[in-house]
Design brief:
- The complex is a heterodimer of chains A (about 260) and B (about 240).
- Helices cover about 45% and strands about 25% of the residues of chain A.
- Chain A is of the alpha+beta class.
- In chain A, helix 2 packs antiparallel against helix 4 and helix 3 (about 50-90) runs antiparallel to helix 4 (about 95-145).
- Chain B has one domain (about 55-240): Porin (Beta Barrel), CATH 2.40.160.
- In chain B, strand 6 and strand 7 (about 195-210) form a beta hairpin.
- Chain B has one helix spanning about 1-45, and strands at about 55-65, 75-90, 90-105, 110-130, 135-155, 165-190, 195-210, 220, 225, 230-240.
- The longest helix of chain B is centred in the first third of the chain and has 42 residues, at about 1-45.
- Chain B has 1 helix and 10 strands; from the N terminus they run αββββββββββ.
- Classes of the chains: A alpha+beta (about 260), B alpha+beta (about 240).
- The interface between A and B is large, with 41 and 37 residues.
Chain lengths: ~260, ~240
């Protein structure tokens, strides 16, 4: 028993010493400024007066009114058919009068059927337009959420202009900053290569840097006082200059 | 690497064997001592032997911390420590220790290597209690001071690759730190004046110069700075020139 305890302890001590022999780990990381990109041109092109969503909304409104009118006509025609049906059965009518009422009844029945067919067609068109509207509203919502694809970022401050490429869309983009300089000059390509729509924008950012160590012993370079000093976007909104709460972007830009 | 780990395994085994056999012998000696004292108490009524008078300066010793030899097989540290001890009336103990250390702790910082190197001393006073002619305990209070420097290099690779990697070496010299220790020692005479034993230390940090942004991680003679109170165990050999 004593030998077993001794051997178990020996094994434990050896494992403990062994486990201390870890290799050094290194970190791949870029300090970054979080940015949201809103494609305002495309949003305006869809939502402006006379544009797709406006026309769709207008058309659906007109159709809705028309369908309401048709419903009234159909209802009136149904009432007529009901009344004429009763009249045809009236025994006091002469045969000539009954034939006249019957002709009127037949005409109303045909008109009711035509109105009903027309209303069904209008419903189909309205459904189609509503689906279109839902699609384009979804597109606008996606653009308003800031979901864009940055195809690449080029560092213009370096002579060789190194470039990083991305393959997914994001709603908030971490734009990589330098760990050595407190200034970056970047060129962003935004769009979709498959569609062939690529727009390029330049961005100059100034910030201060400090070295910080977290509770896990990871050493990082942390940017502070981030300021976009130059850009060719339509507009920029500064949400917060340092670390924002809950992943809120430092800047929102419209292009 | 494999040979190093085999040696480590053997060394750990010897250390554990040393500690366990020491504990067993202490237990045996306690049992023997109790039995002896019972026997003596019945005999001493019959024969009372004259007691030896303990001299004022009872012994002087040289101490070597052989546990530090583990550093020969570890790539994370290299330490040496010696000490001297003088005893009065075989009770009052004055002790001094001197050591050097080069510490390269793994994982001090995740993306930075770290080395601290320097020398230290400890001085203290305590009380020694002989359990029997071969075993004794001592409780001492000690003050330690370290003179050291630390250096390293932070490395962060740019994930995007469009910016340069960040490399920042640091080198801080002429640092000092001091601390206090409560030390419980147990030792056994193995041959003439040669003793083997161990110290159980509780170190309490007094002061060290904190550094920014990477703080001092380990201090020669004290250890890691993550806590102001840390325990430690040392194994040692002692040769005593005894005057009694």
């Amino acid at each position: 028993m004593k030998d077993r305890i001794f051997l178990a302890s020996l094994f434990l001590i050896s494992v403990l010493i062994w486990s201390c022999q870890e290799d050094q780990e290194y970190l791949e990381y870029d300090p970054s400024v979080l940015m949201k990109f809103i494609n305002q041109d495309s949003i305006d092109a869809l939502t402006g007066e006379g544009d797709t969503i406006y026309i769709l909304n207008d058309s659906i409104d007109s159709l809705t009114k028309l369908i309401s009118q048709q419903n009234v006509f159909i209802s009136d025609t149904s009432d007529n058919i009901f009344e004429l049906g009763d009249s045809v059965e009236d025994e006091r009518l002469t045969s000539e009068e009954r034939a006249k009422v019957q002709a009127e009844l037949d005409r109303n029945i045909k008109a009711g059927a035509d109105l009903s067919d027309f209303k069904d067609s209008l419903d189909l068109v309205k459904d189609s337009l509503s689906n279109n509207l839902a699609f384009w509203n979804g597109v606008v919502n996606t653009m308003e959420s800031g979901s864009v694809k940055i195809i690449s970022i080029v560092n213009l401050a370096e002579e060789e202009s190194p470039k990083v490429e991305y393959f997914d869309s994001l709603t908030v983009w971490p734009i990589p900053l330098s760990m050595n300089d407190e200034y970056v000059h970047l060129q962003l390509s935004i769009g979709d290569e498959d569609v062939g729509v690529i727009q390029q924008y330049t961005l100059e950012i100034e910030y201060s840097l400090s070295t910080q160590v977290d509770e896990k012993g990871i050493v990082t370079r942390v940017p502070d006082n981030i300021d976009i000093v130059s850009h060719d976007f339509k507009s920029k909104i500064n949400n917060c200059q340092t670390s924002c709460n809950g992943g809120t972007p430092n800047y929102t830009v419209h292009f | 690497m494999v040979v190093r780990r085999i040696i480590l395994f053997i060394f750990s085994g010897l250390t554990l064997w040393s500690l366990s056999s020491r504990a067993q012998e202490s237990l045996d000696s306690l049992t023997t001592q109790t039995a002896d004292s019972l026997a003596v108490s019945t005999l001493e009524k019959e024969v009372e032997e004259p007691k030896e008078i303990m001299p004022f300066f009872s012994s002087a010793s040289f101490i070597y911390d052989y546990g530090k030899l583990a550093g020969l097989f570890l790539k994370t540290e290299m330490k040496q420590e010696v000490g001297a001890q003088i005893e009065f009336w075989n009770r009052l103990v004055l002790v001094g220790e001197f050591g050097t250390a080069k510490l390269e702790p793994n994982g001090a910082y995740q993306n930075a290597n770290y080395i601290s190197e320097g020398w230290y001393y400890r001085a203290g006073i305590g009380y020694k209690y002989d359990m029997n002619p071969k075993n004794n305990f001592a409780l001492t209070l000690r003050y330690g001071q370290s003179f050291y420097g630390d250096k390293g290099r932070v490395e962060i690779f740019s994930k995007s690759g469009i910016h340069d990697d960040y490399v920042e070496p640091f080198n801080r010299e002429n640092n000092t730190a001091y601390w206090y220790e409560v030390v419980l020692s147990s030792e056994k005479k193995i041959w003439k004046g040669l003793y083997t034993g161990f110290h159980m230390r509780l170190r309490v940090m007094g002061y060290y110069e904190q550094q920014q942004p990477l703080d001092v991680y380990s201090i020669p003679g004290y250890g890691r700075t993550f806590d102001n109170t840390i325990p430690a165990i040392n194994l040692y050999l002692k040769y005593a020139f005894e005057m009694f």
